Amino acid sequence: MGPRLKGKLWQESHQTLAVFRHVNKLTFCIMVLLTWLILLSASALAQTDPLPSWNEGRAKQAIVKFVHETTDQSSSNFVPPEERVAAFDQDGTTWVSHPMYTQVVFCLDRVPAVVKAKPELANVEPFKTVLSGDKAAIAKLTMPDLEKILMATLSGMTVDQFSTEVNRWIASARDPRWNRPYTELVYQPMIELMQYLRASGFKTYIVTGGGQDFVRAYSQRVYGIPPEQVVGTMGGTKFSYNSAGRPILTKEPKLLLNDDHAGKPEGIHLMIGRRPHAAFGNSVGDQQMLEYTGAGDGARLMMLVLHDDAQREYAYGPAQGLPDTKVGTFTQALYDEARSKGWIVISMKNDWKRIFDFEK
Amino acid sequence: MGPRLKGKLWQESHQTLAVFRHVNKLTFCIMVLLTWLILLSASALAQTDPLPSWNEGRAKQAIVKFVHETTDQSSSNFVPPEERVAAFDQDGTTWVSHPMYTQVVFCLDRVPAVVKAKPELANVEPFKTVLSGDKAAIAKLTMPDLEKILMATLSGMTVDQFSTEVNRWIASARDPRWNRPYTELVYQPMIELMQYLRASGFKTYIVTGGGQDFVRAYSQRVYGIPPEQVVGTMGGTKFSYNSAGRPILTKEPKLLLNDDHAGKPEGIHLMIGRRPHAAFGNSVGDQQMLEYTGAGDGARLMMLVLHDDAQREYAYGPAQGLPDTKVGTFTQALYDEARSKGWIVISMKNDWKRIFDFEK
After folding, report:
1. Residue of A nearest to B194 (CA)
2. Who's near A312: CB < 8 A, 6+ residues apart?
3. CA nearest to A90, candidates A183, A158, A199, A203
4. pLDDT at A71 over 50
5. Cβ–Cβ of A288/B239 closer than 8 Å?
6. What digits encode the pLDDT tens for the residues B30-46?
7. pTM greater than 0.95 (yes/no)
8. Do residues A250 and A158 touch, judged by C-beta distance below 8 A?
């Protein structure tokens, strides 16, 4: 018996033992009956729609076809369970990112605390502008300004303090349009898609240009995705000992990998070491991830969310003549690449029956 | 019904459906009977020893106690399954690393191929010395020399080419003492420990100072650990397109993280985002990983392999007066820290009944 087989048997036997402990024969008979009932009801449930928030159409059909092809053992495109990887961009793909990325809002909100700790920053730009509260001036901050703010607000604390800080903020902050926590502004159709893929044996990953530690703080609760399956923009940490001699990890203002554009396939290789079979995005920042995914053999699913629903969410990105913005740009060139490569463009307006879970 | 519960039901129903498809009633009855038999035999098997290559003693007891404490729901040290993380150093902890790290042997063996591609290196040190085949001179190469060799031999190809190259080498290379593939020189007691932890719901990770992509090439086959659970020294990659327009990832001579010493807890945070509950090492390079693991709440298991068995393997490291070497140093200071912090020192000589799977 090889070590792998032994391991498998051990796993089964251990699980079985845990069940058997404290269980007498009568209880066991009842359990067998219950198991039967669960199997029967689960079988009935399996006939229902895994994607109830999706309208019938090309996008939904493509998803179902991909899952059948990759999970049916008789299919030539069958993928062994351990190789089933699906990568989801976050901002604009799984939750609202307009008019400003949620993490940028978090960083701006953190500026007063940073200045309190380092008062000399109060009269230094861009911190001075942020402290002024002048929304028009804040909206005009340049990318180098924002980078200074990100570096200052996302470093200098331990990784545990940071996680606590993100969770505290995200529990109280509200999106101004819907007056709801940002974590309620996730797209219900994409949540269903994640669940459907996981139920089909896929490991689902967030692959975001946002901060890896930021998204990890809530990924399990919001997406059902554990921290080790979040690939994001990575900052360095520094191991040291605090005054009590306890080892700590402090977040450093040092960029290890910018997980956007070409950085997405690079981040995927670094963190996962496998090419995804499915990838979902909404902007030019996702282009290379979709290209990398599509360059693999067999069945691959590449999809882009088009924000074309001004009424229920937003309409932006120059593709199809929508208004251009700085956030999550879906260019006409990306649209054309999608068409030529068979990537599926998801129209929020036409493909999604409902957008948020709270729209009952 | 919340989205999480729905997802769970979906998962169950989907799996059930897959089973029911193509299965008629008679076959189903036979399957139920077979399931019964499997449950019964697994139950019997569960009475046997999960660590047969370990002698009874303090080390084995500590492992079994840790597993019971962290997996028994009535224990105050119970750990939810999703948080169960165990980190294993590789060189000297899960396989032989003496007298030279296996990956260094690989890199030295690759030098001729690198020089063939770049003939100008033939007369440049340290490549000239490696090409000379002078074993005494090669053994005297300095750390900066070795770094030049590592950078040159571990970069410049696509990640897929590299993985193919490692697998080709590892299938043919032999350790000179045992005349066996390096992958057969894994420690059977540590393989059993990994299997026992996985059977108890732990995710097992390799956390190595070796190259992440090097170890990933064989980790599933040798350790049952998938590539996404290998944390190692990380090099950068570069996304680009080859002459046919196909997207490729090329390994760059750029160090992102040296996953050794303080780099181990930093690498664990980067790749996993959780503090391990158990960590296993054998040298000063593992010190900070064990400290970081031990700084968490509840039950934690920290163990160090002491190479004190010159007959069956090797005896080295200045702890307990063993001879010093450059490879995997187990200092007396580390030994003293282990004693004072309650880390378990595994004596290969006394704690391991057998070392390799091939010793029947």
Report:
1. A7
2. A348, A349, A355, A359
3. A183
4. yes
5. yes
6. 667 777 766 766 665 55
7. no
8. yes
